[in-house]
């Protein structure tokens, strides 16, 4: 995976966790500890999901750069990951008894993180590069 993609995903995972922790703290203050726990649980599942998708995507890109066109095993891993998400969600909600709304909110924090990370990247790319300006002044 390119360095931009790796940087973007790393920022996305950290922002997902930051938002999830903030929402869990708010849920604990306003609602219940069970809601906060379910929100944290959903956030951790979401962050893990992002990390696995980033890892598999990186492996697929690296294989393609080597000229290998077969992505069957990586697709199988993504399918297993999807099945694991279904199983984890069932276990956490039906068996463990996590608050459904809190879990969904926690899992959905990656959507807010995408917006936050995209804004950060757009602001970074639209800002003038200070190094370029310094090089111009040094040559004068």
Average pLDDT reading:
82
Terminal CA distance:
39 Å
| Overall body shape | flat
- Work out the number of β strands: 0
- Give the fraction of residues assigned to helices: over 70%
Low-confidence stretches: 132-140
How many helices? The count is 6
Structural class: mainly alpha
Major sheet attributes: none
How much of the residues is beta strand, in percent?
A: under 5%
> Gyration radius, to the nearest Å?
20 Å
**What is the total domain count?**
1
| Sequence of secondary-structure elements | HHHHHH
Write structural notes for this entry.
- Helix content is 86%, strand content 0%.
- It has 140 residues and is mostly helical.
- It has one domain.
- Helix 1 (3-30) packs antiparallel against helix 2 (33-65), helix 1 (3-30) runs antiparallel to helix 4 and helix 2 (33-65) runs parallel beside helix 4 (100-107).
- The longest helix has 33 residues, at 33-65.
- The chain starts with a helix and ends with a helix.
- The relative contact order is 0.16.
- Its main location: membrane.
- Keywords: Cell membrane, Membrane, Transmembrane, Transmembrane helix.
- InterPro entries: ATP_synth_I.
- It is a multi-pass membrane protein.
């Amino acid at each position: 995976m390119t360095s931009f993609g790796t940087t973007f995903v790393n920022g996305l995972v950290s922002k997902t966790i930051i938002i999830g922790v903030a929402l869990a703290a708010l849920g604990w203050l306003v609602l219940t500890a069970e809601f906060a726990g379910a929100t944290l649980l959903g956030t951790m599942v979401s962050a893990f999901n992002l990390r696995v998708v980033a890892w598999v995507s990186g492996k697929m890109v690296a294989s393609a750069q080597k000229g290998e066109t077969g992505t069957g095993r990586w697709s199988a891993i993504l399918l297993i990951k999807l099945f694991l998400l279904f199983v984890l969600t069932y276990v956490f909600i039906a068996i463990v008894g996590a608050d459904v709304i809190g879990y969904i909110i926690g899992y959905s924090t990656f959507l807010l993180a995408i917006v936050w990370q995209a804004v950060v990247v757009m602001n970074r790319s639209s800002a003038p590069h200070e190094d370029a300006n310094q090089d111009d002044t040094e040559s004068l």
